[in-house]
Automatic annotation (TrEMBL):
Keywords: Cell membrane, Membrane, Transmembrane, Transmembrane helix, Transport. It comes from Martelella endophytica. Residues 99-326 form the ABC transmembrane type-1 domain. The chain crosses the membrane at residues 12-30, 105-127, 139-161, 203-222, 261-287, 307-333. SUPFAM superfamilies: MetI-like. PROSITE patterns: ABC_TM1 (PS50928). Its main location: membrane. It is found in: Cell membrane. GO terms for molecular function: dipeptide transmembrane transporter activity. InterPro entries: BPD_transp_1_N, MetI-like, MetI-like_sf. This is Peptide ABC transporter permease. The keyword Secreted does not apply.
């Protein structure tokens, strides 16, 4: 790795650490100034005032805000995010159990959206103003305009309740829950690892609809941006030269245009992935998906501030990490960015 690359990497890491710290401060302050009283959520709003004050002192909520933040920061650095009111477990333990479900759902969704959105956007741009282009634009418009939860409800009514093509709420049929050891937390992988094909088929049956709905939402954005990138490249001299040489449409798209828009696509896909992890909250509620989104929603309902802070930090940190990795990909894939930065 060159000296410049190490310096640039150090700068990006410094920006990432600073951004994470600012996120932590803002999230903590908002959590403390919210009208919800975590003490009341623990002992009950009608509890004796002395009991409320005793619990407040036990949790350190009677200390100045800066001291509370310092205690929370030290606990965070040691992997201690406090205990959740909802489950009574350490928040970190709950997150380790819930996050793989969200990760599995969002990962499958971003794979589906990429496999469909990138080719569709490139094809729509190449055959501009044809029926393919109009279809792609309509699909993108609908995907941007209609809320995900509406698609989820309609999808359950049609494909689950009426046609029985997919599984219902949850990750797997109830009678199959707990049969597979959670080695990775990703049920599709764990069931394959265990060789339990019944659990695997049930998991696929349950994940396909929420993943497809999330994928459609992301695909609308990916298709629109890919079409825009491709239209810009179609006006370049190298495309005209490739056509003059008799290159096929497939060769022009896959062999010439795709490598030139790869750097831009990296950022778009990173943003989409982060948005899916964040946007899975609504989908998880509709499908009773036991992921971090549903965990955060349940925490909000009872004012569980430890769980709310932790999930907010996790989602924000993931989004920042994806942006950081996309910036690194820029430096690796496009030498021009290194020249500009220097």
């Amino acid at each position: 790795m060159t000296e410049f690359s190490l310096i640039e990497l150090g700068k990006r890491l410094g920006q990432l650490v600073l951004s994470l710290f600012v996120l932590l401060v803002v999230t903590f302050v908002i959590g403390r100034v919210m009208p919800t009283d975590p003490v009341g959520a623990i002992v009950g709003e009608l509890a004796d005032p002395a009991a409320l004050e005793a619990m407040r002192a036990r949790l350190g909520l009677d200390l100045p805000l800066y001291q509370q933040f310092w205690i929370y920061l030290m606990g965070l650095l040691h992997g201690d995010l406090g205990n959740a009111i909802l489950t009574g477990n350490p928040v970190m333990q709950d997150l380790r159990a819930a996050f793989p479900a969200t990760l599995e759902l969002a990962t499958l969704a971003v794979i589906l959206s990429t496999l469909i959105g990138v080719p569709l956007g490139m094809t729509a741009a190449f055959f501009r103003d044809t029926w393919i282009d109009r279809l792609a634009r309509i699909l993108s418009l609908v995907g941007h305009s209609i809320p995900v939860f509406w698609f989820g409800i309609v999808g359950l009514v049609i494909f689950y309740a009426s046609l029985s093509w997919v599984g219902g709420p949850g990750r797997v049929d109830i009678y199959l829950e707990g049969l597979v050891e959670p080695r990775t937390g990703l049920l599709l992988i764990d069931s394959l690892w265990a060789g339990d094909w019944e659990v695997f088929r049930s998991a696929v049956h349950h994940i396909i609809l929420p993943a497809a709905i999330l994928a459609y939402s992301a695909m609308a954005y990916i298709t629109r941006m890919t079409r825009s990138f491709t239209l810009e490249q179609l006006n370049q001299d190298y495309v005209v030269a490739a056509r003059a040489k008799g290159a096929s449409n497939w060769r022009i798209l896959a062999g010439h245009i795709l490598p030139n828009i790869a750097v831009q696509l990296v950022t778009i896909l990173a943003i989409s992935y982060g948005s899916l992890l964040e946007g899975a909250v609504v989908t998880e509620i509709v499908f009773s998906w036991p992921g971090i989104g549903q965990y955060m929603t349940n925490a909000l309902m009872i004012g569980d501030m430890n769980a709310i802070l932790a999930t907010t930090l996790i989602i924000g940190a993931i989004f920042m990490m994806l942006n950081f990795l996309s910036d690194l990909a820029y430096l690796v894939l496009d030498p021009r960015t290194r020249e500009v930065a220097s």
